[in-house]
């Protein structure tokens, strides 16, 4: 089994990386390889809402001049997906948000590619804003019918300068527990294949309240 982790921090070795690495260490103890992809320092444009991914259904975003399509294929191949972000002023950084908007749109309209994969999110924060960012990240996972493991608190770790998160003892425990629970859930999913039938997918129902 394999997990792919996306680091939304501009700093490749900042506190978001350390949080993801803590989770990855627990996964690797259980034989689950983890690849960390640095997203936050890339030039990634936002979704154009052009609908071409819906029309073509070729597992690609029409914007092909950045790594998003490559990352979508990594998500498709992975058994587990980790997404991590620092708090930028009020929530997810712009580059990470642009990537998530496009990737989850494409995967959603291409036969729900991420459905029943195990997914988790983590946040690194200086002081506050961790929960809004955590909730924003989880919205993507929930919309895709992914399976979310938990820890013994919200998946938020604290630190200002790179590496300071390694001094947050409670945050470190949260990341350890998340990694252990994620590995356990991934194994349950793997061993359940062929033994327990998953619920049948339903076509998405859309409704607005303008009459």
State the gist of this model.
The chain has 211 residues and is an alpha/beta fold. The protein has 6 helices and 5 strands; from the N terminus they run βαβααβαβαβα. The longest helix has 24 residues, at 169-192.
Description:
By secondary structure, the chain is an alpha/beta fold. 40% of the residues lie in helices and 14% in strands. It is built from 6 helices and 5 strands; from the N terminus they run βαβααβαβαβα. It has helices at 15-29, 52-56, 68-77, 94-109, 130-143, 169-192; strands at residues 2-7, 33-38, 80-86, 118-125, 156-158. It has a 5-stranded parallel sheet, with helices on both faces. Strand 3 (80-86), helix 4 (94-109) and strand 4 form a beta-alpha-beta unit. The longest helix is centred in the C-terminal third of the chain and has 24 residues, at 169-192. The mean pLDDT is 96.
Shape: globular
Strand line-up of the largest beta sheet = 2-1-3-4-5
- Main β-sheet, in a few words? 5 strands, parallel
Which structural class do you get from the secondary structure elements?
A: alpha/beta
Proportion in helices:
25-40%
Number of helices: 6
- What portion of residues belong to β-strands? 5-15%
Topology as a string of helices (H) and strands (E): EHEHHEHEHEH
The poorly predicted ranges are: none
Q: Determine Rg (CA atoms, Å).
A: 17 Å
Give the overall average pLDDT: 96
Beta strand count: 5
CA(first)-CA(last) distance: 48 Å
């Amino acid at each position: 089994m394999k997990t792919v982790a996306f680091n939304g921090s501009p700093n490749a070795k900042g506190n978001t990386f350390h949080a993801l690495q803590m989770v990855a260490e627990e996964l690797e103890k259980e034989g689950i390889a983890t690849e960390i992809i640095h997203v936050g320092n890339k030039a990634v444009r936002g979704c154009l809402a052009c609908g071409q991914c819906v029309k073509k259904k070729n597992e690609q975003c029409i914007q092909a001049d950045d790594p998003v399509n490559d990352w979508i294929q990594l998500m498709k191949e992975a058994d587990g997906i980790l997404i991590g972000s620092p708090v930028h002023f009020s929530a997810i950084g712009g580059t990470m948000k642009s990537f998530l908007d496009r990737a989850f749109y494409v995967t959603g309209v291409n036969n729900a590619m991420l459905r029943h994969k195990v997914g988790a999110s983590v946040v690194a924060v200086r002081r506050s804003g961790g929960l809004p960012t955590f909730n924003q990240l989880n919205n993507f996972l929930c919309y895709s019918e992914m399976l979310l493991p938990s820890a013994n608190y919200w998946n938020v770790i604290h630190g200002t300068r790179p590496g300071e998160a390694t001094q947050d003892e409670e945050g470190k425990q949260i990341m350890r527990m998340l990694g252990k629970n994620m590995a356990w859930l991934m194994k349950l999913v793997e061993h359940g294949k062929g033994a327990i039938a998953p619920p049948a997918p339903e076509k998405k129902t859309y409704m607005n309240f303008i009459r």
